[in-house]
Structures are given as C-alpha cells and as structure tokens.
Design goal:
It is a single chain. The protein is an alpha/beta fold and 410 residues long. It has 13 helices and 15 strands. It has a seven-stranded mixed β-sheet with strand order 7-6-8-9-10-14-15, sandwiched between helices. The protein has a five-stranded parallel β-sheet with strand order 2-1-3-4-5, with helices on both faces.
C-alpha cells in the first residue's frame, strides 16, 4: 500500500511538472499583417524581416521554451484586405496577430478581434500592435485583447513639446500630416501641448494629405515656405516622409522638422547629408543604443543589407516569452492575463504593459540628424549620417493618462 501511494504521488508530481512546462517545444505562430507592396511596401517588408529575424533569435532563448514562427500577409495598407488576412490566419490556426502600419487598419482589426473573441470562446486571438499610435486605441476604443508596444501620439507629442519648450528658435509652426486618424491626432495633440507649454508659438498653417498617394510634395513645400514657418511637425511615415524631405531639400526649405519616423526606410537616403541639426525624431529607441541592440543591428545589416529600426519587435518577443512562462501556457486567454500589467526587462530597461489600458510604458528619446562619429557610429542606409540622442525622457515623463474603461472577460 505504501509503495502504491508513493507511486501515485510520484505520478501526480510528474503530471504537475509536465503541466508546468506544457508549452515547452510548442510552435507559436504570429501572423504579420502589413503592406508588402505599393508605396509603403518597403516599410512593411523591413518589418517582416525584423519579425522573422527575431523569431529565430528568441526561439532559442525565451523562458517559455516555445518556438516562434511568422506567417505573413500583404494587406496593401487596406482595412478590408487586413480583415481577409485575419480570416486566413485564423483558418490556419494562428492565435496571435501583429500589425502596425496604419491606424485605420489597426482600428478595423481591433473591432474584428473583439467580435471574434466574444463569439468564439476557446479560440481567442491576441493583437500585438507594434506601430499604430492612435491614442484612442488605449482610451475610448481600448480592448482587453489589444496590446500596444509603440508609444502613442499623446506620449510622443508630450515628450516632443517638452523638448521644443526650450527651443527658442521655434516660433512659427506648420502642422503637416496624413489625412487619417493618426494624422488628425498629431494635429490635435500638437495644438494642445504647444498652447500649454509655448503659448507664444504661432501655428501658421496646417495640411492633411492623402495617405500613401502623393508622389510630389513640392507644392506643399512652397506653401510651407510661404507661411513663414521655421518648424514643421509631422507624423508622416514611409514614402510620405521620404518624399516630403526630398521636396524640402530640392525646394530650399531650411526650417526644422520634428518627426516620428525619420529613421524609417527611405527617409535617411532622401535626407542624405542635408538637414543636419535641423531634423529631429521622437521615438522609443534609436540607431545607437549599443549593448545587445547594437549587436543585433549589426547582424541584421549583415544578413539583409538593411537597417533594423522597429525595436518594438524585440519587446513583443520578450513580453510573450515572459508571459507564456508565467502562464505556463500558450493559450491566448492565459497569456493575455499574464501580459496585462506585466513588467519585464527589454532592450531599453524595465518597462511595463500598463494594466488599465495595455499601453507599454517605456522611455523615449529625442534624436537629431547629424554626421556619424566615434560616439554615434551607426549610419542608416549607408548615408554616413545618424540620429544621435540629445534627450532621454524616462517612462514617468513620457507617460500620459488614460480614460480606458476596459471590459475584461469573466
């Protein structure tokens, strides 16, 4: 009897032990849904390579012992195409989706994921947002199933205008943005923050242009010059920023640009050696982070002859590994519960996925376009130029409040 009891106890212990590491060796598929063609295709393609590169890295090192696999879909920057991609991913059994380019796309995906999860218990999906920065997604439209790893526009503008507050050369500002939710939010928060911190600054003009459709920005540059603006604030990205700065160079506009995405594909080449000391970027990382990030960027460059800049990808893998280990499962329901409020160490220090709204709290950096040197040696797109950090904003400075009233399952 004693032997039988010991046998049962040993079996129970083994079962518990096996359950604790039930996720070890599992393959976790992540659907990457973003543009791989059209004007914004180069950005999406770079980010797909980033997800694939780090899937290989973190499959070997994550504490949950899982293997990550990327399944890619070209959404052509279309909400409708993205919903088709979501359905195709679900049909393949994918339970995690990653998207970032275009808040209009992200909004459609959040709504679709919410409906799917409500109607299909046991088949829930998690949305990993790495670049769509409309603040509504973690405020009025917040979702338990959505986790944002980029800093939203309210956070970026908070840091940007804190820096601009002390830049006395800024007197006349032109707001130039893409005509969709993201661009509208940049305008809204820029106006509010400048009015509060620099009431002496004049807004001398504003434009909203079609997303990923304009090929010649010279007429807009002529308007900006005519307005007398000494500074442009823009949330433009991809071709909409690279073609804008190209037109500014050709049109002889010598004012400052305060941007979100100067380091993204195409814009470093368009800038070249122009804009030194005049083009600024606010972001959650930069090209000269050093440490593991510096090593990974060098390996990425060697492998793809391309630059790694979407550092949120690293945070996603680190958070997923920690959350799956904590949950002892790859089930999205258990992983979402572990992710919500999770503090973890990423490439830029200790960060937290805020429980109230699922907005990652992380530091931001203001960088400026300048020549590479011994201190800041990494030159994107072989330009011999770089984005050098001039100011770091810790998480508590860049953080902004939330109005999220999150509906939690159960």
């Amino acid at each position: 009897m004693k032997f039988a009891t010991r046998l049962i106890a040993a079996a129970a212990l083994a079962a518990c032990s096996l359950g604790a590491f039930a996720q070890k060796g599992e393959t976790v598929k992540i659907a990457h849904i973003d543009p791989l063609s059209g004007l914004m295709g180069p950005v999406g393609s770079n980010q797909l390579k980033s997800f694939q590169f780090f899937a290989e890295k973190f499959s070997k090192t994550n504490p949950a012992g899982v293997k990550f696999e990327i399944v890619s879909f070209d959404n052509k920057l279309s909400p409708a195409e993205s919903l088709n991609a979501l359905k195709a991913a679900m049909d393949q059994g994918v339970r995690y989706i990653a998207q970032g380019n275009g808040s209009s796309v992200a909004g459609a995906l959040i709504e679709a994921v919410n409906k799917h999860n409500e109607r299909n218990p046991g088949k829930e999906i998690i949305f990993l947002n790495y670049a769509a920065v409309d603040p509504d997604f973690t405020n009025s439209k917040c979702s338990y199933w959505h986790f944002r790893f980029d800093a939203d526009t309210s956070m970026k503008i908070e840091a940007m205008t804190t820096f601009m507050k002390d830049d006395k050369d800024v007197k006349k500002v032109y707001l130039f943005n893409q005509n969709y939710s993201h661009g509208h939010q940049v305008v809204k928060f820029a106006k509010e923050n400048l009015a509060r911190k620099r009431p002496d600054v004049q807004i001398v003009g504003e434009d909203l242009h079609p997303l990923a459709q304009v090929r010649d920005f010279s007429p807009y540059i002529a308007k900006i010059k005519a307005s007398g603006a000494d500074t442009v604030i823009t949330g433009n990205w991809g071709s909409d920023l690279s073609l804008l700065v190209k037109a500014a160079n050709e049109g002889g506009y010598n004012g400052k640009f305060y941007t979100y995405y100067t380091g993204v594909t195409g814009t470093p080449t368009a800038l070249g050696t122009s804009g030194a000391g005049r083009v600024f970027q606010i972001a959650y990382s930069h090209y000269n982070m050093g440490g593991d990030m510096g090593k990974w960027m060098g390996e990425f460059k060697t492998k793809f002859n391309d630059d790694f800049y979407t550092s949120a990808v690293v945070s996603i893998y680190m958070a997923l590994g920690d959350a799956m280990a904590k949950a002892k499962s790859t089930d999205p329901v258990k992983v979402a519960a572990a992710l919500s409020g999770l503090s973890f160490k990423s490439y830029h220090g200790e960060v937290q996925m805020r429980k109230t709204d699922h907005q990652l709290q992380q530091p931001l950096w203001m960088t400026v376009w300048q020549k590479t040197d011994k201190k800041y040696p990494y030159g994107p797109e072989n330009t011999g130029m770089t984005l050098a950090p001039v100011k770091e904003f810790p998480s508590y400075v860049s953080s902004t409040p939330t109005s999220c009233q999150m509906k939690r399952p159960g």
